[in-house]
C-alpha cells in the first residue's frame, strides 16, 4: 500500500514537470496544447477513496495553474473531472474489480482506452470552455478541443504502453 | 435533523468537490484579469527557481514588461520634447523681446502632440498591399488618420480602427504619400514607396537644383498627420525621374519593418480643427 502511494506521488510530480516544462509550450497548429496531467486520475486504483481522488486532483490542477499563471482554470476543470470519475468507471469496468485495481494497457487495454477517451475529452472540453468562457467562437473552441483531446489521448496511451513495457522487461 | 447530518456525511465528498471547484472559480475570477496576486503565480519562489533552472521563458515575459514600461516612458519624454520645441518656436519666431514677458508658464500649456504606445501584432509584407496591425484601438483613443512612428522614424498612418486594434498603412504601401524634404533644404518632395524593397522608398518631385549627397537625412515637412522634422530615412542614391524638371532620390528607410515591434501613435490635439478649416477652403 505504501509503495502504491509513493508511486502515485512520483507520477504526480513527473506529470507536472512534463506538462509545465514541455507540453504547455507546444502549440499544435497554433491553437491546441496536449494536456496529459489527467493521466494521474486514470492511474489511481479504482477503489481509491473519493476524498483522496478529489483533493489530489485539485492540488494537481492548482500546481499546474501556479506554473502557467492561470489561477483556478486547470484546478476547476480537473476537480470536476475527479467528481465524475466514479460514475465513468462504472461504465467501463466491472464493479468487483474495483478495489486495488489499477487500469492500464497491460491488464485491460480496451476498457482503459475507452476510459481514457471519455475522461480526457471531458477534461479538455471543460478546460477550454472555462478558458474561453464564451460561446462566441464555438468552431474555434471545438477545433481546439478536438486537436488537444486527440493528441492528449495518443500521448497518454503511448506513455502507458512505454511504462508497461519497461515493467515487463524488469520482470523477465 | 439527524437525516440532514446523515445526508451531509454520506455526500461529503461531493461537498468537498463543490467547495474546491468554487474556490477554483474564485481564483479564476479574482486573479486572472491581471497578475495582481504574486502569491500564486510564477513570481512564487518554487516555480521561480524551477523556471530559472529549466530555461528563461519567464524572463522573456519580464523583458516584454520592461520593454513596455520603457516605451511608455519614451512616449512621455517625446511629449515633453515636443512641448519644449513648440515653446522654443514661440521664442524665436516672434520678435521676442517684449513677448517673453508674457509667455505663459509652460506647465499650463497642453502639448499639441501626445503619444500612445502600441505593440505590433501582425505585419504583412507578402504582396503590394502591405499593412500593420497594432494592439490599441478606439478604446485607447486611436482614430483613423493618426500618424504612427517607431523610435527610429516614421512608420505609417492609421487607416481602420476597431475597439482594441488598429490597422496601419505603412510607408511601404503604394497608397502611402507624405510630404518630405532634405534636412538642410527647404524644398518639399513627395514620399512614396517604389514597391521593390521594404527597406527603400523614394522622394519624387524635388527641384532640379536640389543639392544632395549620400546619407543626407530625409525628414517630414508640412503634414496634417505628422509633426515636422521627424526622420524618415537617409538618401541612398539618385532615382529615375519621369520629368526633366524634377529629380527623384531613393532613400533607405529609418524604420526596419522586418523587426518592428513597438510603435507610438501620434495624437494631434489640433488635427480636427486644422482639417475643418482646410476643408472650408477646398469647397
Based on the coordinates given, report the CATH architecture of the domain at 178-253 in chain B.
Answer: Beta Barrel
Distance between the termini of chain A: 24 Å
The count of β-strands of chain B is: 12
> What is the tally of helical segments of chain B?
6
Proportion in β-strands of chain B: 25-35%
Q: Please tell me what the overall shape of chain B is.
A: elongated
**Individual helix count of chain A:** 6
> Strand-and-helix sequence of chain A, N→C?
HHHHHH
**How many beta-strand segments of chain A?**
0
Mean pLDDT of chain A: 82
Using brief descriptors, characterize the structure shown.
heterodimer, A: 172 residues, mainly alpha, 0% strand, B: 283 residues, alpha+beta, Thrombin, subunit H, six-stranded antiparallel beta barrel, 6 helices, 12 strands, 28% strand, elongated
Secondary-structure topology with pairs:
The complex is a heterodimer of chains A (172) and B (283).
Chain A: H1 2-22, H2 39-42, H3 50-68, H4 73-92, H5 109-132, H6 138-171
Helix pairs in contact in A: 1-3, 3-4, 4-5, 5-6
Chain B: H1 2-10, H2 12-31, H3 45-54, H4 57-93, H5 96-99, E1 113-124, E2 131-134, E3 147-149, E4 154-161, E5 166-170, E6 178-182, E7 188-192, E8 200-207, E9 217-220, E10 231-239, E11 246-253, E12 262-268, H6 271-282
Antiparallel strand pairs in B: 1-2, 1-12, 2-5, 3-4, 3-12, 4-5, 6-7, 6-9, 7-8, 8-11, 9-10, 10-11
Structure in words:
The complex is a heterodimer of chains A (about 170) and B (about 280). With about 170 residues, chain A is mainly α. Chain A has helices at about 1-20, 40, 50-70, 75-90, 110-130, 140-170. The model of chain A has no long low-confidence stretch (mean pLDDT about 80). Mean pLDDT of chain B is about 75; it is low at about 35-45 and about 95-100. Chain B is elongated. The longest helix of chain B is centred in the first third of the chain and has 37 residues, at about 55-95. Chain B is an alpha+beta fold. Chains A and B meet through helix 3 and helix 4 of A and helix 2 and helix 3 of B.
